[in-house]
Amino acid sequence: MPLEQTELLKKFAELVVEKNKIHNLTSAKTPEEFYKKHIKDCLASYVTIEKRLQKQIVDCGSGAGLPSIVWSIINPQLKIFSVDSNQKKIAFQKHIKRTFGLKNLHPVAARIQDFCPEETSSAIFKAFSSVKKGAQSLNRDAQFRNLFFLKKDDEKTQEEITDAGSLLYDYKRHKYISNKEKMLVVELYDSKNSNN
């Protein structure tokens, strides 16, 4: 990764922790902890599914901007809509967009149910309640090629996959390691748009 991107990611970690004193953005207490726990996970998950992503991405319930801000820094070719209903979190993301000059990042204050991208997209869920609720939350008119859930590779996630069984047209499990922890990207296909 180019040094410039690494510096931006470190600066992002600093700004999140600084703003966290005012807004509830993270449980991390230091920029180092935020970088290690969250940014490294976003980087590892991106490498795992990079070739499966559409050119347009919708980060659902993006919070502090994970993974949307991290991914927009490391791949300026992606067009990323970062959607969250919390106005303060979106205001923070807009501040990051201006500060870093991230032209490919589009923070949107909206409920994910109400957001409908014009182009075929990939939907990303990180720290979202469950696979089933995530899949059910999307606007039914939206053209999502695939849905990605960034999760721990554990029993709870397996239970979520089982619970979402009736919604799963097809899915794949993409395993990776982050901070010595087994992680998983669960990829679902929208039955309307799937050729898999």
What does this structure look like?
This protein has 196 residues and is of the alpha/beta class. The chain is 37% helix and 24% strand. It contains six helices and seven strands, in the order ααβαβαββαβαββ. The protein has helices spanning 3-19, 31-49, 68-74, 87-100, 131-137, 155-163; strands at residues 56-60, 79-84, 105-109, 121-126, 144-152, 171-178, 181-189. Strands 3-2-1-4-5-7-6 form a seven-stranded mixed beta sheet, with helices on both faces. The protein is globular, with a radius of gyration of 16 Å.
Element layout with pairings:
Elements: H1 3-19, H2 31-49, E1 56-60, H3 68-74, E2 79-84, H4 87-100, E3 105-109, E4 121-126, H5 131-137, E5 144-152, H6 155-163, E6 171-178, E7 181-189
Parallel strand pairs: 1-2, 1-4, 2-3, 4-5
Antiparallel strand pairs: 5-7, 6-7
In short:
The protein is α/β, with parallel strands linked by helices and 196 residues long.
